[in-house]
Amino acid sequence: MIMKLNQILKKKIIIKELFSIQDVVRWISSCFSISNLWYGHGSDNPWDEAINLVLPILGLPPYIWNIVNNSRLSIKERKIIFKLVIKRIEKRIPVVYLTNKTWFCGHELYIDNRVLIPRSPISELINNKFKSIISSRHHPKYILDLCTGSGCIAIACAYLFPNAHIDAVDISLDAINIVEYNIQLHGLEDRITPICSNLFDKLPKYTYDLIISNPPYVDKK
Questions:
Q1: What is the C-alpha separation between 145 and 153, in angstroms, rounded?
Q2: pLDDT value at position 10?
């Protein structure tokens, strides 16, 4: 198994023999398949994991795979991808922490290891416009996102409810720094307020129409 992986991981293969995005993704998928990797951060199989590595590095969302899969990669792009494949296999670093990009409810986010990778079931509620919770005639004016992490839920809610103001709260200053970056990425500085607080401790004294919370549910390991 190790010898086979070493043969596949020859740098000259990806640099000299693989040209299109599809060629490279197929090669990466083969490497991942025999590397006993764990999936669960946006993919559950080697093929999708490979797509989630390659396209974000190119500045492209994974969901446009069918449009760009035959596009050719430059030598520089292939070298960058090769280095990340090695890190994914040898250091077991999740793909999102390698690319620093993910998408939540269709919105791009910056992510690094200071926050958990978004994979919240709340995305289904957002995509369904909270139909099981609030009336379609009710448009919340003030929304609270407790334990915001990367700010993914707050940002998705800002798009869903364009007239709402959202407070994005987290006890971690590192998380708040990432939230601020993602807010700027989407130009939502006037719509979302990041607050470093232990739950309700430092929140403004007004009533929220909608409170959402997806606190951490996994340990540091």
A1: 7
A2: 64
